[in-house]
Design a protein that fits this description.
By secondary structure, the chain is mainly beta. The protein is built from five helices and 25 strands. The longest helix has 13 residues.
């Protein structure tokens, strides 16, 4: 018989073992798992069977070193196939890497609607709505990836059934409106578009973003009925953006160009990730605030799409944010004025030297003489004109 006095001594009892509900789910999925600091080419990531997504559907679960509340779901759909109908409580922002197809969306009650997508399409599906993907090609696979907030939800509720088998309908976010995926985007002050579907992210109108430097243009997107925020930034050859600090949760996907990112936490050694079209990297590689900076060393402009979770200019995350400006955020305000941006004159001196060395290797001239006093190159695009692909606007 156990001694009752021993049972009452906490020092003689086993310690509780903490469970990670997301990691447990991730292992049970039986799908290939990818980690690391960044992914050099999302088009080349190996995939394997993903039973949850449907018979014959392949995919990979990505959870990088900087991921915490979010992860990445890469899906490859064979020619002429469709995914299984699914619904879930997490939000996912989806970017189509290759292929053409369509997606049907519906609630338990209400009409079904379908929209078409192709390379460069970007959209956010309504929370917990049924959806199904179809590959329109009979000869080529379609590939897309989504950034989701599934890890946060599984850790919060510790219930897979709650996340994947929940009957609740968010009718206030989506009630089957026939124009949910086709309504004209609304433009707000601060270069902010509100929309749910962008047919081709490369045709999104961009506007001058002088405060971040680098001859850059930019536009923000509030999507998924206002539940999340993304943005697109473009900057010229021979230029780089100002460094800025925030957590590791921003996911950057390169849609155009060649370059690298430097990211650093505190006084730790810098981490460098060389990127190209198809690369995916995060703003940091672990917990805490990370200083990161983007450099274009290619002959063409560089463009990246930032897929964010947990951010919205429409809904406040806490009582303090509720009173903050939705036009200018601390990430683009100098650290000398209380923000998190590092001005060119305040950055480490070797930042620019390394950049010029990389340009020389490629026979490209640095064009930041009018921004960085110690630049040995030429004056460049201190400001940038708004970038419109054609005269028809967002949905051309």
């Amino acid at each position: 018989m156990t001694n009752p006095n021993t049972q009452l001594d906490p020092e003689k009892q086993p310690a509780l073992v903490r469970l990670d509900a997301y990691e447990e789910w991730r292992r049970r999925e039986g799908v290939p798992l990818v980690g690391g600091v960044y992914i050099k080419d999302m088009k080349a990531v190996e995939v394997g069977p993903w039973p949850r997504k449907g018979d014959g559907v392949n995919g990979t679960l990505c959870y990088l070193d900087g991921d915490d509340e979010g992860d990445e779901h890469l899906v490859e759909l064979p020619p002429g196939r469709s995914t299984a109908p699914l619904r879930h409580m997490y939000t996912e922002a989806t970017y189509v890497v290759s292929g053409h197809g369509s997606t049907s969306v519906w609630r338990d009650k209400g009409p079904k609607q379908t929209f078409e997508w192709g390379p460069g399409s970007y959209f956010v599906l309504p929370t917990n709505a049924w959806h199904q993907f179809f590959n329109a090609s009979l000869s080529r696979s379609a590939r897309w990836f989504s950034v989701t907030d599934l890890p946060q939800l599984l850790r919060q509720w510790a219930s897979e059934d709650f996340v994947f088998n929940n009957p609740y309908d968010f009718n206030d976010r989506y009630a089957g409106e026939p124009d949910y995926f086709t309504a004209e985007a609304k433009l707000y002050r601060g270069r902010v578009w509100e929309t749910n579907f962008i047919p081709d992210i490369k045709k999104l109108p961009l506007y001058e973003w002088k405060s971040r430097g680098g001859g850059g243009t930019n536009a923000f997107m509030v999507m998924g009925a206002g539940m999340m925020e993304s943005h697109v930034s473009r900057f010229e050859s021979g230029h780089y953006k100002k460094g800025h600090r925030h957590g590791p949760g921003a996911h950057l996907y390169i849609t155009e160009g060649e370059g690298y990112v430097l990211t650093q936490r505190g006084n730790e050694p810098r981490i460098r990730c060389d990127w190209k079209e198809g690369s995916l990297y995060l703003s940091g590689a672990g917990e805490g605030l990370w200083l990161h900076q983007h450099f274009n060393v290619g002959p063409t402009p560089a463009t990246y799409l930032v897929l964010n979770q947990g951010l919205s200019r429409k809904y406040a995350a806490n009582r303090w944010q509720a009173s903050e400006s939705t036009v200018l955020r601390t990430g683009e305000v100098s650290g000398k004025k209380g923000g998190y941006q590092v001005e060119y004159e305040d950055e480490e001196p070797d930042i620019h030297r390394i950049f010029e060395e990389e340009l020389r290797k490629r026979g490209i001239t640095c064009k930041m003489k009018n921004m960085v006093p110690w630049c040995t190159g030429e004056p460049g695009a201190e400001t940038a004109k708004a970038h419109f692909p054609d005269e028809h606007g967002l949905y051309s």
